[in-house]
Design brief:
Structural class: alpha+beta
Strand content: 35-45%
Number of strands: 21
Order of helices and strands: EEEHEEEHHHEHEHEEHHEEEHEEEEEEEE
Length: 365
């Protein structure tokens, strides 16, 4: 079982929603589409589902060309961020509806409905109609109906966005178990890098209608092919600063320097971009062997357990992550530190040339 996209694109007027894309998804895999709003995640899913027809390229399901095949004739289920249920039916009948169309027996239908209701915490409201339950419960009902179908391809477009935190975290753990048990191809869209890592499987990073990388989630996170992918797979986006490489040394704009390891020292001398994630920037503390920078606080964001600090450093805007609630003042001068072993290096074209992590033999694209 496989879903294959060959040169698939989508254009509307003068706007390109999806640039020519090649991608192959295999049976029993979790595939996360990660990107900001309007990156093209939903557009790509609609092409996979057959809701939209590509302007170029072909789509194959198990080797068969289904590019022009109607969505009703495809082996798929789809869950949207905005839930869709049958208002005149009870929750039980909503979940059971696709099974009845498949002409399952009453016993099979009841067993599957109970299984989905248990998983998605709907047992106590099976006799209610969608208008009598909360929005979060309606979303869970829509998810249960889609998952009950046992189809080959399950498309989930930010399905947990409208749920409360506790249930969202529980389902993030359960969804990978579900797809492993079903053997289906799961495609899951999200704007959150953390969610992509929690779900595991493969990640496709999207930016302005382009798939910038497609590979196992941890490979993409540890070895982003370029600056764009690194920004997409970092929350907040990765910080950058221009540096000068001279032999085995990298010089920063504040005249501080860092030694490169043997593998990185073989790169040609010249200008590069150093990138690092927010949690690798130590704010207001010293680290042994780290590079120190003078910074000015622009603004803070309190998340409850952590504080994001926005900094002006050497004409660059950086974001650091500090544990706990910190009482910094806007305009305050701060010392920030960065360990050389946490730095990614990119060339002038934005391509990754050196990573802090061992590089797999082959990175997906």
């Amino acid at each position: 079982m496989s879903l294959k996209l060959e040169g698939v694109s989508k254009i509307s007027g003068s706007k390109t929603h999806i640039y020519p894309t090649d991608m192959e998804l295999q049976k029993g895999t979790m595939n996360v589409l990660l990107g900001p709003t309007s990156a093209g995640k939903t557009s790509l899913m609609r092409l996979m589902a057959g809701l939209d027809k590509p302007d170029s390229g072909k789509i194959y399901w198990e080797g068969e060309d289904v590019t022009k095949k109607r969505v009703q004739d495809r082996d798929i289920a789809m869950v949207y961020q905005q839930f869709v249920n049958y208002p005149a039916m009870t929750v039980y009948d909503n979940i059971a509806s696709p099974l009845k169309l498949q002409k399952k027996s009453a016993a099979e239908i009841d067993a599957k409905v109970q299984e989905m209701a248990e998983l998605l915490q709907l047992v106590s409201i099976l006799d209610r109609k969608p208008g009598e339950i909360s929005g979060g419960q309606q979303q869970r009902c829509a998810m249960a109906r889609a998952l009950a179908k046992d189809v080959g391809l399950v498309l989930m477009d930010e399905p947990l966005a409208n749920l409360d935190y506790k249930l969202r975290e529980e389902l993030r753990i359960e969804i990978p178990r579900l797809f492993e048990a079903s053997g289906s191809i799961f495609v899951y869209a999200t704007t959150e890098p953390e969610e992509a890592l929690l779900l595991g499987g493969n990640t496709a990073t999207l930016w302005e209608g382009r798939v910038t990388q497609f590979a196992p989630a941890m490979d993409v996170y540890r070895n982003p092919l370029d600056e764009t992918t690194a920004r997409v797979y970092s929350d907040p986006p990765m910080n950058f600063v221009s540096v000068q490489k001279e032999g085995a040394v990298v010089r920063f704009p504040n005249e501080q320097s860092a030694k490169m390891n043997d593998g990185l020292a073989s790169l040609p001398d010249g200008e590069y971009r150093a990138g690092f994630r927010a949690h690798h920037l130590a704010v207001g503390e010293s680290l042994s062997g780290a590079i120190e920078f003078d910074a000015k606080l622009i603004v803070t964001e309190l998340t409850g357990s952590d504080t994001f600090v926005h900094l002006d450093t050497m004409d660059e805007r950086w974001i650091g992550l500090v544990s706990g609630l910190q009482a910094f003042e806007v305009g305050q001068a701060l010392k920030v530190c960065l360990s050389p072993e946490n730095i990614f290096y990119f060339d002038n074209e934005g391509k990754l040339v050196a990573s802090p992590h061992p590089k797999p033999e082959k990175l997906g694209v």
